[in-house]
Amino acid sequence: MTGSTPSSVLTTTQRKDVLMRRGIIALAAAGLLAVTGLTACGDDDGGDGGSADKKPKIGVILPDSKSSARWETADRKYLEEAFKSAGVDYDIQNAQNDKNAFQTIADQMISSGVTALMIVNLDSGTGKAVLDKAKQQGVATIDYDRLTLGGSASYYVSFDNVAVGKLQGEGLTKCLTAMNKTKPVVAYLNGSPTDNNATLFKQGYDGVIKAKFDAGEFTKGPDQSVPEWDNAQAQTIFEQMFTTTGGKIDGVLAANDGLGNSVINVLKKNNLNGKVPVTGQDATVQGLQNILAGDQCMTVYKAIKKEADAAAELAIALAKGEKKDTGKTVKDVEGNRDVPAVLLEPQSITKENVKAVVADGFVTKAELCTAAFAAKCTEAGI
Ligand code: BGC
What we know:
Bound molecules: beta-D-glucopyranose
Number of strands: 14
Domain Periplasmic binding protein: 58-323
GO molecular function: carbohydrate binding
Strand order of the largest sheet: 3-2-4-5-6-13-12
Keywords: Signal
Number of helices: 14
Oligomer: single chain
Largest sheet: 7 strands, mixed
Subcellular location: Cell envelope
Protein name: Sugar ABC transporter substrate-binding protein
Radius of gyration: 22 Å
């Protein structure tokens, strides 16, 4: 804060103005404003929490480290980079799928003086409790990746999750068609029933595949959700699906790469890997390797750097008591509320364009192209 008028000699309005301009300059310097095209729309000390008088500090609670590799390998890394380059104080913790720990971490963050709190809820109930408490204490909040139904977050930053599901539905349809399967039996292995995203993904893929069922082109197979996206449970569930259908499953819509890999494990035991197309999401190293091996039909790449940058930009603004216009809202049907939102576009990945994920810096060639995959990587142009 060198070279500027001491805040103490300014009127409140002048002080707010100076702080807001400093905020915008800092964001512009960090290159964050350019990322999403968000516009500053004036400072705000009322209602949304955050305070221009407190030292900005951002708390982030990630959900777990098992339901997807992304939380620790991508989200944490990119959020950290964004906070560091903007020079703000931050604290990123992981609740490891423990709802009590989630609440405790939030309490600690609030009492340690965070001015903005970003959460990936474990379910809407616990998420709402944390958001409401933060709001009461004047802490601004963001729903990161998962919308908390009935919640009170000031912003929601995610991908267009119905579009994610649509890509999965289209991807599976393409693979089944390419394999010339007649009236294939399609099974659904959905995400956690308490994750609003899982509902949106299903809306997306069902929107594509239901028409095929209705037209008699595909046959509807088992359809089950996986509690907490648990990969081990997913494997048990799929084993049961496989047994009860007498092995008559021709394609599997698995909602993410972890669930997809559980399905592939069962298919491998039955020498059916590569013969039954399986979908995924997150472009994890494991998912991409399954694609290169020919065991997985596709995944969905979500450029998490963009998601983290957009959320960090908003969190920094809120932490400083500023407000931004995202130009878009999503409906929280449970709270009957329009939540200002940033929704990014997902991308479909098949063997043909796995290299795009490497080119984007999301996974490295070293991580992906281990000895067992070196030849496949060369074939895929990586
Ligand atoms: C995220 C996915 C992730 C899943 C399990 C969802 O809410 O959007 O990217 O695979 O949770 O962690």
